[in-house]
Fold:
Amino acid sequence: MNTPAPVPVDENVGLGNVLLAMDVVDTLRHEQRVVSEALGEEAREQALVNRVRRAYRAQGIEVSDALIAEGVAKLKEQQFDYTPPPPGLGTGLAKAWINRGRIGTGLAAVALLVGVIGSGWWGFVERPAQKRLATLVSSTDAGIADATRQLTLLEERRKTLAARIETERNARTPQPAQAAVTTELDNATQDLANAASALTQAATFAQVARNREPENKAMAQSRSDQLTRQRVLLTTAGNELGNAERALGGLDALRTLPETITTLRDEALAAAATGDARTRIGNTASDALSALSRGEASLAQTGVSSLRSMIEMLQQELEVRIVSRPGVLSGVIRTPNDNRRINNYYLVVEAVDGAGSPARLAIESEEDGTTRTVALWAARVSESTFNGVRRDKQDDGIIQNDAAGAKPRGHLEIDWSLPRSGGFIHTWENPR
Structure:
């Protein structure tokens, strides 16, 4: 391979010489890394000179020994090495200015991301929360206004009832009804006291609920909770006032109850045709008056209802017969719960008036002691009587002898022609 002829270098050329010297130093720095570990100081310096000379000759450049020696000296002095400036405010600002394009793009991206997140937070979290808060505040304000009106009305109602109680305590009451009337007035007074207590607490809650500063979620919820408690108390007060009103409303009836009992007793006695009926009527009226004098108004009212039922029964003329029609049982067999080894036999009966219309009678069950007013009930009979009626019906599907008894006018009890062996039941597998 032909080596290009060296080009002599003018060592007196200013800038070119400097640049070449810098290049020489750079070459020396590169070559230094190659030989620094294998040679001593002098041998390393001579090796560097030789390698640099060969490198330039290979490029067709002739560099004098003086220039190479100068390059070695500069290398030792590190004159052409780059030493970065120490960190500081000026250095930081200079670097930021140099990288302003890249930094600006990043900041713009961050700003855009913050904007998107902020917009989403406002649209999906903050704004709905503010709307819910506004709705809660608005509904609470409306509820407070309504509760305040209700509180005022209930307080006026309470005052009216309090005045009425005082009037009723001074009203004339027949002696037999005095205890009952006094009891009802005492009950009404207690109801009124309960209402007053509830209204006082409700007024306290209303005052707290009206406080709107500062308005935030916690305060708004607290006001709503106070309003809820206030409404509960107002409902309680309303119920107590209602109880008092009902108690006072029944006072007139209580005052006339002795006269009502006496009138019904006399009417029932006039319709009674038997001694047993008269005895029952007298006992019922006496028990009602005694209950009234003890202040037990409900028992007295029960006696009044019994007297009215007796009068209705006395005025009726009924026939009792065994039921015999399609779709309705004529008899039932029951096993008592307290003795599962025996059976009780019942025939299903009904009472009809002269026009054939069924009558509904109060029947007490011997199984559970309950009383129901029914059109059909069953009378307990012996097994032989039960089987005799069953054979009668099996002949042609009709019970020929269906008469079971009669209840004449003026009587309270049925005169049974059917031989009974026990009491009655009003409920079974197919009750009517």
Q: What stands out?
A: The two ends are 134 Å apart (CA to CA). The first helix runs from residue 14 to 35. The first strand starts at residue 7 and ends at 8. Confidence is low (pLDDT under 50) at residues 3-15.
